[in-house]
Amino acid sequence: MPDGRAGAVGDHGGVTTPTSTQVTLSHVMNATEANLLGTIHGGNIMKMVDDCAGVVANRFAQGPAVTAGMDEMTFLTPVRVGDVLHVSAQINWAGRSSMEVGVRAEADRWDSVAPRVHVASAYLVMVAVDADGQTRPVPELSVETEEERRRFREAQIRRRHRLARRDEIRTSRGEGGAA
Ligand SMILES: CC(C)(COP(=O)(O)OP(=O)(O)OC[C@H]1O[C@@H](n2cnc3c(N)ncnc32)[C@H](O)[C@@H]1OP(=O)(O)O)[C@@H](O)C(=O)NCCC(=O)NCCS
Prior knowledge:
Helices cover about 25% and strands about 25% of the residues. It is built from two helices and six strands. Strands 1, 2, 3, 4, 5 and 6 form a six-stranded antiparallel sheet that branches. A hairpin with a 3-residue loop joins β4 and β5 (about 100-110). It is globular, with a radius of gyration of 18 Å. Residues about 1-10 have low confidence and may be disordered.
């Protein structure tokens, strides 16, 4: 296994594909999750997004993984009380200890059988840690389909931008450069 990474459990040939990491959480949104306008508070949607990304990352990493960051998340349309929110996530990219998880939130309207509405999308960086909170290696991710390759490629671009931004800010504070 390259870079001394462990092989994944429950996969084929010791590697895991992004598609095989997919998890969906579904929840009927209720009145306690509403904002002053009566629609669902964005923070409750973000919580489901983070929960789902966490499940995906923990399963892939075969142990605990923490959220290191979430990219900009745009809310495209309000979710209403009674709507069924479906949050789906999968690993897009994996490095030594970090992973990018792609998440898409869609809603089934409670009062019609119209097609699902795209509510929001987000990318999260999750990092596998041990019991002491130290980073640890994750298994290898094997991209097979054209779609998986596209997501992997685009995740690498986002990662370069995230690290460049972090390093530039550190440098501007006189804290030194790249980690
Ligand atoms: C996330 C955390 C473990 C990273 O620790 P660290 O000492 O900065 O670790 P490193 O600098 O070695 O980075 C670890 C990995 O994360 C990546 N990483 C760190 N910061 C990043 C950022 N801003 N964007 C993208 N990737 C980042 C590194 O590139 C590295 O990836 P790799 O191992 O795949 O090459 C640490 O900052 C932490 O514990 N944060 C708190 C997490 C938390 O409490 N979350 C909320 C509850 S789940």
